[in-house]
Amino acid sequence: MSSTENWWKGEINWATPAGRLLDKFLAALPDDRAFHFVLFGSAPLQLSIDHALLSADVDLFSENEEEDLAALVEAAKLGKSQGGIYLEPGHSLSFRASPHWRARARSLTRRRATLTLPHPHDVLIGKLARLDAKDVQAFRRVMELTGHPTADEFKKDLQNAVDLFRPAFDDDSPNRYPENTRRLWREVFHAEIDLQRDIIAPALAKRRENYGETTPDYKHFLER
Questions:
Q1: Considering just the CA atoms, what is the radius of gyration of the chain in Å?
Q2: Crossing angle for the helix pair 120-127 and 133-146, nearest 10 degrees?
Q3: Dihedral of alpha carbons 126, 224, 132, 181, sign
Q4: What is the pTM of this model?
């Protein structure tokens, strides 16, 4: 996808469930300082692409890591304990995507806050961590409504996010990105993908060329 394409930067629909919830939250914020929140999960897609895409919560984190986001959500009475659609406070580490995701995100001002919405491709990369049925449906809806991502586009996105395919730090929480990427290709792109050939080898070749790094051997992990 060329850098000049901005197919995903349409109008934000604040009448969606996510939009109405966010407006309530922003209206309840203290007026003594500025705020900057990043939305992830399904909310950015619901606001900008598929207004009918449903989700039980709105995931967000604060760009100010000192901010007690959970306390702000509770003060606004918009947390999980309140029932209905709710705000789910997260952390920047909760959102796993391309390391370059901020460069292609969009930011806007709403009430007293700045809201950043990651590019839909980065939102979809994040969904590979679980790839539940609703996540597969999100891929299909985004592709149906926009024509993106194509298989080739998403391969390039994943090459840029190659470190997501590293072995997990915690054996009790295995890395599902390899398994789920293969399943995504079968269920959404209707093809098979060779992660070593199509994602990891090209990405690490670029890394060696640019930085002279030694290439880790991920092949044994992917073949487990």
A1: 18
A2: 160
A3: positive
A4: 0.88
Distance from C-alpha of 104 to C-alpha of 192, rounded to nearest angstrom: 28
CA 47 to each of CA 28, 38, 50, 71, 162: distance values in angstroms, whole numbers, following the listed order: 20, 13, 7, 25, 28
Range 62-83 average pLDDT: 95
Whether 172 has a pLDDT exceeding 90, the answer reads: no
Cα gap 62→71, rounded to integer Å: 12
Q: How far apart are CA 165 and CA 219, in angstroms?
A: 10
Report the alpha-carbon distance of residue 80 to residue 61 in Å, rounded.
15
DSSP string, the chain: --TT--TT-----TTSHHHHHHHHHHHHS-SSS-EEEEEETTHHHHHHT-TT---SEEEEEESSTTS-HHHHHHHTT-SGGG-SSEEEE--GGG----TTGGGG-EEEEETTEEEEE--HHHHHHHHTTT--HHHHHHHHHHHHHH----HHHHHHHHHHTGGGGSPPS-TTS---HHHHHHHHIIIII-S---HIIIIIHHHHHHHHHHH-PPPP--HHHHT-
Residues 4 and 69: their CA atoms lie apart, in Å, by 35
Report d(CA 134, CA 116) in Å as an integer.
23
| pLDDT (mean) for 151-173 | 90
Tokens at residue 96, please? 């796993």
Q: Which residue has the tokens 């304990």?
A: 81
pLDDT category at 211 given cuts 50, 70, 90 is low
Q: In whole angstroms, give the CA distance from residue 130 to residue 50.
A: 20
116 close to 105: Cβ distance less than 8 angstroms: yes
